[in-house]
Task: structure prediction
Amino acid sequence: MAEPLKVVVTGAAGQIAYSLLYSVAKGDVFGYDQSLELNLLDITPMMEVLNGVVMELQDCAIPLVKKITATDDPNVAFKDVNAAFMVGAMPRKDGMERKDLLKANVKIFKAQGQAMDKVAKKTVKVVVVGNPANTNACILSRYAPSIPKENFTCLTRLDQNRAQAQIAARLGVTTDKVTNVIIWGNHSSTQFPDVAHAKVELNGQVVPVPEAVKDDNYLKNDFIKTVQQRGAAVIKARKLSSAMSAAKAACDHMHDWFVGTKG
Result:
């Protein structure tokens, strides 16, 4: 078995991390023969909850997990890590815009960036999940100048997965049959889902999505609005932001970055 990868998850006592950690631990992200050391970071008031999460991970009895460290100290959490899931951020609530989150999140991501700059591996791969993800990634990179800028990414995969799922549902196929969906712009309501180059496998034939859908009005209007507003729709229905789907998207993102994509 390969040497353990060190992986940090911030906001580790929260909802997204709760869905994310099991997938990471059992090998969905880094491979089923890749052992792991998990560093779980959260704020001091959440440490009791985080200890409960650690108990559950232990009780999963996953052989790949060699060590679990729960901490409220960024310098401990980011020490020598190979990969970072930056999940922790001030949560967005019903009626809030992402700009409302900026002030609190600058403080969080500045401190974490400084710790990462000091103790993380310079090759660390970082995916920022906490919103506003694009801005938070920029802040993190700014305060970790010794780590290459290309090592900092933010989560657009959730939007990609949402767009892919909408097209698959429209055409009555599974999501793996839809490929090459593109999301332009920020992870926000101004994003632009683009299927101009997307393909779909129908009845054994691969065809362009616009040709398969045969409805330009849908693709230019309802499809785009549905994807743009999906996060707000989830909040309105659940009274909480997307967690399970965000965790799955973060895992997809990191997996494809570390392991590669098909074809």
